[in-house]
Write a structure and sequence with these properties.
α2 packs parallel to α14, α3 crosses α4 and α5 packs antiparallel against α8. This protein is mostly helical and 353 residues long. The chain starts with a helix and ends with a helix. The protein has a single domain, classed as ABC transporter involved in vitamin B12 uptake, BtuC, CATH 1.10.3470.
Length: 353
């Protein structure tokens, strides 16, 4: 009896289990990442062609006045830009993570399902055929084009007994993207107006987008976010291979379809709103896996915070390096993301899915 009591007491005196310690570290890391996101959001409201101190920013947010110049700058210009960067970054980060998990391809990005080219072709059609040249006007064309291109790619890849395997998805995406790219070039060669408008959209930018654009894409981003965050267990199963996933009782076809829906909703919305921004959806999942490991439940959660932090930070950097002008965020993400991705690729364990 005494020995049993002694053993129990010794066990009770031990520290928390490794699983609990890991979960605690992950929660602390997530809290730190959330604080970093809050900091870059505040900087986004403060930094620009006119610097505004935190007290004035807070006053403009709490006491909005249309006759006050600072209120117009903070609320009407920078707040909408910051919120759009927040939700677009969230969408790109989750979409990139789901893409890489679905295709088991560490180099997967929005182009793998033809999303960028589908959205670009739809924007070209909206401009050249319907004469729509405003962002709020062609945002739904871009979303529809992105969704339609992704559906075509998935349908082509699904032909055959194996269904939409990762290799077939990549090949179908490359083929559809090449075809859409040819159509875009053909239209642009005959329309100077389309060429000028598409050039501004394709560079990727948070500037010039107001609350009207944000409200249009917010419902689809919210729905896509819910679907993506619910796919953690499914992506963990797909990472083990189709046969293992089926052996564990997972419905592989249904999981892939749900992943495709999430990608279309998230990537289509973000691309339609801010243009095809590179490297965010490509780099962020690798960084998240480096921090939390291979569990997609945590990778998705951290990607949802890392991605908007990166996008908004790049937008702030673009306002500073070319002061009093600015570089568009799509240019800055490419300059920042390329070296980071090269460093990640050199570590083999970070790109193995």
């Amino acid at each position: 009896m005494t020995a049993g009591i002694t053993t129990t007491s010794a066990g009770a005196g031990r520290g928390p289990s490794p699983l609990r310690r890991r979960r605690r570290r992950l929660l602390i890391g997530f809290a730190v990442a959330a604080v970093a996101l809050l900091v870059v959001c505040v900087l986004s409201l403060m930094v620009g062609s006119r610097a505004i101190d935190p007290a004035a920013v807070l006053n403009a947010l709490l006491h909005y006045d249309k006759s006050d110049e600072l209120s117009l700058i903070v609320v009407d210009s920078r707040l909408s830009r910051t919120l759009l960067g927040l939700f677009a970054g969230l969408a790109l980060g989750l979409a990139g993570t789901v893409m890489q998990g679905l295709s088991r391809n560490p180099l997967a990005d929005p182009g793998i399902l033809g999303v960028n080219f589908g959205a670009s072709l739809a924007v070209v059609v909206a401009i050249s055929v319907f004469g729509i040249t405003t962002t709020s006007g062609y945002v739904w064309f871009a979303f529809a084009g992105a969704g339609l291109a992704a559906v075509v790619v998935y349908a082509v890849a699904s032909v055959g007994r194996e269904g939409a395997t990762p290799i077939k998805l990549a090949l179908a995406g490359a083929a559809v993207s090449a075809a859409l790219g040819s159509l875009i070039t053909a239209v642009l060669l005959t329309s100077q107006v389309s060429l000028d408008a598409l050039r501004f959209w394709q560079v990727g930018s948070l500037a010039g987008r107001g609350f009207d654009v944000l409200w249009q894409v917010l419902p689809t981003i919210a729905l896509g976010t819910v679907v993506a965050l619910a796919l953690g267990r499914s992506l963990n199963g797909l990472a083990l291979g189709d046969d293992v996933a089926r052996g564990l009782g997972q419905r592989v076809g249904l999981s892939r379809a749900a992943c495709a829906v999430a990608i279309v909703l998230l990537c289509g919305s973000a691309t339609a709103a801010v243009g095809p921004i590179a490297f965010v959806g490509l780099v962020v999942p690798h960084v998240a896996r480096y921090v939390v490991g291979g569990d997609y439940r945590w990778v998705l959660a951290f990607s949802a915070v890392f991605a908007p932090t990166l996008l908004i930070a790049c937008d702030v950097i673009g306002r500073v390096v070319a002061y009093p002008g600015e570089l568009q965020v799509g240019v800055v993400t490419a300059l920042v993301g390329a070296p980071v991705f090269i460093a990640l690729v050199r570590r083999r364990k970070l790109v193995s899915l």
